[in-house]
Design brief:
By secondary structure, the chain is an alpha/beta fold. Helix content is 32%, strand content 26%. The protein has four helices and six strands. The longest helix has 14 residues, at 76-89.
């Protein structure tokens, strides 16, 4: 399965490395080029510099063939925007968003977006 990971911090880079090691194809989007240094040395996926809610950036990263997307940036607002774009515009069925503010979890769930808390 092709997976798009938005955010290449500790969580995003770890997730991307694990997914590749399990045989998935992975594209990682981050706005900071230096963030990709966190990826494993043998990372076989693709990297894209930009913001994850930019539709053109998502298309370049393969969102149209993606079976899943993980929005794991360091901002709740960015993550919800990325997740909603993937779900509503591109029709990605498996979408998960990282949240910092637990009070937002109910909102995400009403939108049909699974969440993962940092705690």
């Amino acid at each position: 399965m092709h997976v798009v990971v938005v955010g290449c911090g500790r969580v995003g880079s770890g997730l991307a490395g694990t997914l590749v090691s399990q045989g998935h194809t992975v594209s990682v989007i981050d706005r900071k080029p230096q963030a990709f240094r966190r990826l494993p040395e043998n990372f076989a996926g693709e990297t894209f510099v930009g913001v994850g809610f930019d539709r053109e950036q998502l298309v370049a990263a393969g969102i149209e063939r993606a079976g899943a997307l993980a929005a794991v940036t360091n901002g709740d607002n960015s993550n919800i925007l990325v997740a909603r774009t993937a779900r509503e515009f591109f029709g990605v069925e498996r979408v998960v968003a990282r949240i910092y503010d637990q009070r937002r979890a109910a909102i995400y769930e009403r939108l049909g977006i699974s969440t993962v808390a940092t705690v």
